[in-house]
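Complex 259.
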Amino acid sequence: MKKTLLLCLMTIMTIISMTGCSMNQNHQASSQDASDNSTVSSQASSNAQGSESSGQTSSEDAKPTGGEDFQDDDWRLILANADHPLPDGFTVPELAQIQGGYEIDARIYDAFQQMESAAEADGVDLLVCSAYRSIEKQTSLFEGNVQELMEEGYSESEARRITGQSYAIPGRSEHNTGLALDIVTPDYQTLDDGYADTAAGKWLKNNAYKYGFILRYPKDKEDITKIIFEPWHYRYVGRDYAAEIQQSGLCLEEFLDQK
Ligand SMILES: [Zn+2]
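Predicted structure with zinc ion bound:
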């Protein structure tokens, strides 16, 4: 028991030391981002607000257009969670680089840039601290941690279980889709509940949907998403779906079930 606690602590410390924004997580539920951020380099903190400052879009300019026919294979609604891994051989067709050198699916580049500019116009600095992450990279981090634990004497199944508490299973993290971003702000880069009360956290909650992004892991949906409340984690689904989701208060899993 003592050993498990110590190991758990050490894992958290390792993650924190490797990440751009730091994770302050109570271990009640799992988090996507303890592991997702472990590839984040400290470069993020030095580049608060990308280069985009021209052609500003105020938040009123982007209005959702209302309902839309649902299509099963719509790339914007792809689900990646503990129960639904991405399909074998999943790849993002094309990546585009945003602030801090982070990458996202090129199809959502414009939406992100518009959101960033709109926030800036409203006096809010959005700082990305994690975005796309390849399944290969995640596999190597996950397996590396399993190996380390096994060298410390854990059985393989124990090592995988413990690793799964802090590292998203490869192919089951939304960051593998290229459609998810962790967004903080220069003055508050800790990944914890407190971020929700910052200007950036509030702005995102009220405005992200106008650009097609949803708060993916709401506070009251932890039982369904199986992920702790993550006020920094936003997922692109397109403007129409985002508006529907925002209005309904459903999380993505519920929304997809209903369709
Ligand atoms: Zn995330």
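Residues 32-33, 36, 130, 175, 180, 182, 233 surround zinc ion (CB under 6 Å).
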